[in-house]
Description:
The protein has 276 residues and is an alpha/beta fold. It folds into 2 domains: 1-69, no CATH class; 73-274, Vaccinia Virus protein VP39 (Rossmann fold), CATH 3.40.50.150. The chain is built from 7 helices and 12 strands.
Amino acid sequence: MISRVLGYFSYLQKLLGFRAALTFFVYYIFYKSGVAHRSKWCRIPLGQIVFYSPSLKQFAGLFNEIFFKGYYHLEKTNLPIEVIDCGANIGVSLLYIKLMAPHAHVICFEPNPASFAALNKNIKANHWEKEVVAYPYALGKNKGTSDFFVERQEETSYSASLSKHMAGKHELVSFPVRVDLLSSYINKPVDFLKIDIEGAEFDVLEDLFERHKLADISEIQLEYHYHPASLHKSLKEIVTFLESSDFAVSVKDTAKSNSVNHDAISAHMVFAKRRK
């Protein structure tokens, strides 16, 4: 346990510097101790960046997944790379992108109004308006509107989804959101595409394929979801689809694998990099 904590701190020190890493750990331990209480906004300093979250609990959970568990991997660069963040939620994935690529141009999509408000707050707080644009849309294979499901007790829940089966285990509320095509926003090469949209990932990939946009993307990192009640595309199908589109693909488990039980809910990170 101690070695793991020291490993996390060493990672953050390399990314943020000693003082910022220490400040973050104080906030994190404060939450883990149970002393922290939910408030409208938690202000979390991360070196030159300040991050706002509806709760330290939500921030810590997302930060743990993205930074410590390595759900995404973006090489550190000072180049003005082109990035798309599908399912940006409150902006922790955007935080990761801007720490790894400070000059990245980023297009974000987040259909949940509560999460979108937090995302915009973080964009404005860090003066990213010239480099980051956010759209309040869900993404799919067809334009239109659809019901969007969110846990009632966590209005910015990162399990919110167009599928009620993926939106969480607690009581859900739903409201209509606009669904748009990602292909409509790609008019130049994209260096890095991140997709975490709780079950609609295959629809987005098919939209890109059908409108000849996949060839413009160098790297895709997505969370694949399987649910026996509504999401039936197998992991093998999505890997084969990407490989046939000239990507080299690797997979990392994030939940129980459906390779053992085909009726079990599962999630995997899929890393796809265009072959040279």
